[in-house]
Amino acid sequence: QNAAQKLKPIVPIKFHISSRTDAGVHALCNAAHIDIQRPPGKPPFQEKELIYSLNYHLKPEPICILKAHRVAESFHARFSALSRTYVYRLLVGCSHHSEIPVFERDLCWAPRGGYLDVPAMQDGAQFLLGTHDFSTFRSHNSDTPFQSPIRTMFQIDIQPSSGFLSHHYEDRGLEFWELQFRSRSFLYRQVRRMVGTLVAVGQGKLKPHHVKELLEKKDARALPPNAMAPPSGLFLKSVEY
């Protein structure tokens, strides 16, 4: 928003972002919309011109504009979204957090124990697919009393992945896994609580059918203690329109 103000619009600019995330969560991609009114006689910004200008003023920040598109006045970055996709990165094989590769720090979660039963996690994830009351899997915040807990999970995948430069330390026996979630929208901390529960299944602390039982309780207090994944492994991957 500050960068856009440096483009000298005649009306103050407000960014409307598709999604908010917790502190410590990352975004591979996010979407926003803005209205820019230029002084009389100045032509509208061309898309590439807008990208270059905003990125010039964003130089000090760990963010950049990837694309820009002209949209209809009825478009809204948040309310027009058809779905959002999040990826959570897990690192398996570390017996202590000090073993996390330096380039992966704050970009993944290495649960204690060093082993996960991924097929059990995949079985547990099946219970979360579809339309449910996800009250058990949300934290409380100021929006909670006004938000419906009903959400539809379109997709949950658990797939092997690769780490940054991981081919250089193959001998360490580390494994990366990605949990991908797609829904039209998510409740506050829903993904982190679902990941934490599935990791508990992978560690043998819960059985896959316990995921269904937790879902049916519709009570955030039913989630086991410490069953929320840290923010560092979570990435907003994309917003679909």
UniProtKB/TrEMBL annotation:
It catalyses: uridine(38/39/40) in tRNA = pseudouridine(38/39/40) in tRNA. It comes from the Eukaryota. SUPFAM superfamilies: Pseudouridine synthase. Substrate binds at Y86. The active site is at D22 (nucleophile). Residues 125-241 form the Pseudouridine synthase I TruA alpha/beta domain. GO terms for biological process: tRNA pseudouridine synthesis. Its EC number is 5.4.99.12. Keywords: Isomerase, tRNA processing. Pfam families: PseudoU_synth_1. GO terms for molecular function: RNA binding; tRNA pseudouridine(38-40) synthase activity. The keyword Methyltransferase does not apply. The keyword Nucleus does not apply. InterPro entries: PsdUridine_synth_cat_dom_sf, PsdUridine_synth_TruA, PsdUridine_synth_TruA_a/b_dom, PsdUridine_synth_TruA_C, TruA/RsuA/RluB/E/F_N. Belongs to the tRNA pseudouridine synthase TruA family. This is tRNA pseudouridine synthase. It comes from Baryphthengus martii (Rufous motmot). The gene is Pusl1.
